[in-house]
């Protein structure tokens, strides 16, 4: 027999064998509420772009580069030294970060300096770091 959970959103029950909640019965879907949510829902194209962005952040070295650039503007050679990586490997990761519009650069003499694209990238990085530092 399913276990009934009380929620304001819907009449939900859980299968005791799987603990997977499901709507029961289907005819009780709140159509008007669902219709009002759909225009606010993430569209498929934007969801795909967000997935690509998060995928590009799914690399340890890219995250370490972002962590450095959250602190200071740096050239490739300084990033490579700080992370104990080759300049070629750092440049490769920076190309990916540039393509995703997470970092940008400017030249000063013969050196190229990188920094975070904008405040949104810094906020995203800081929010995730703070989230991970929170106690369970």
TrEMBL record:
<dbReference type="Pfam" id="PF01022">
    <property type="entry name" value="HTH_5"/>
</dbReference>
<keyword id="KW-0238">DNA-binding</keyword>
<protein>
    <submittedName>
        <fullName>Transcriptional regulator, ArsR family protein</fullName>
    </submittedName>
</protein>
<dbReference type="InterPro" id="IPR036388">
    <property type="entry name" value="WH-like_DNA-bd_sf"/>
</dbReference>
<keyword id="KW-0804">Transcription</keyword>
<dbReference type="InterPro" id="IPR001845">
    <property type="entry name" value="HTH_ArsR_DNA-bd_dom"/>
</dbReference>
<feature type="domain" description="HTH arsR-type">
    <location>
        <begin position="42"/>
        <end position="136"/>
    </location>
</feature>
<keyword id="KW-0805">Transcription regulation</keyword>
<dbReference type="InterPro" id="IPR051011">
    <property type="entry name" value="Metal_resp_trans_reg"/>
</dbReference>
<dbReference type="GO" id="GO:0003677">
    <property type="term" value="F:DNA binding"/>
</dbReference>
<dbReference type="InterPro" id="IPR018334">
    <property type="entry name" value="ArsR_HTH"/>
</dbReference>
<feature type="region of interest" description="Disordered">
    <location>
        <begin position="1"/>
        <end position="24"/>
    </location>
</feature>
<dbReference type="GO" id="GO:0003700">
    <property type="term" value="F:DNA-binding transcription factor activity"/>
</dbReference>
<dbReference type="InterPro" id="IPR011991">
    <property type="entry name" value="ArsR-like_HTH"/>
</dbReference>
<dbReference type="InterPro" id="IPR036390">
    <property type="entry name" value="WH_DNA-bd_sf"/>
</dbReference>
């Amino acid at each position: 027999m399913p276990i009934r959970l009380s929620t304001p959103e819907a009449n939900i029950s859980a299968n005791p064998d799987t603990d997977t909640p499901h709507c029961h019965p289907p005819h009780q879907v709140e159509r008007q509420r669902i219709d009002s949510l759909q225009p606010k829902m993430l569209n498929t194209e934007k969801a795909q772009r967000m997935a690509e962005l998060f995928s590009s952040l799914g690399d340890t070295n890219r995250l370490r580069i972002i962590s450095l650039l959250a602190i200071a503007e740096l050239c490739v050679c300084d990033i490579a030294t700080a992370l104990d990586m080759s300049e070629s490997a750092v440049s490769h990761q920076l190309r990916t970060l540039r393509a995703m519009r997470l970092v940008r650069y400017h030249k000063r003499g013969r050196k190229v300096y990188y920094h975070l694209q904008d405040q949104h990238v810094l906020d995203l990085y800081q929010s995730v770091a703070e989230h991970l530092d929170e106690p369970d």
